[in-house]
Each structure stands twice: as C-alpha cells, then as structure tokens.
Amino acid sequence: MAIPLIQDEMDSQFEGTWYEHNCFLNMGVHYFNFNYQPDQDCDETIPFQVLYTSTLLIDEDSERNI
Prior knowledge:
Elements: H1 7-13, E1 19-21, E2 29-32, E3 50-53, E4 56-57
Antiparallel strand pairs: 1-2, 2-3, 3-4
C-alpha cells in the first residue's frame, strides 16, 4: 500500500478503511485504520498512524511504501 502524500488523496482513496482522528490543536491530522467500533477485531488493525500537517504527509521519505 502506498500512502498518499496529500491529505485529500488519503480521504478519497481510503474512505472506509482509514479514519481521521482528533488530536490536540496544531498536532496535525492523524489517520488510523481503527474505527472505534466495539466489535472491531484489534488483531486486524495496522499498528501505525498516518500524519498530515498543512495537508501534506509527514515522513522521512517523500514516497514510503508499506
């Protein structure tokens, strides 16, 4: 899976599989594939988050593939 560099692409490409989560002011926008549903199987979640600030991906590499 390739993580989009732009937040709008994340929203359109992964709707229903990655979910925007709230954080503190000025901490960016976090996405997890955890949806807070009580019946979600935690063994099927991915153990990392995707973080955007000013609609751009924060990462050491500009194109990281998972």
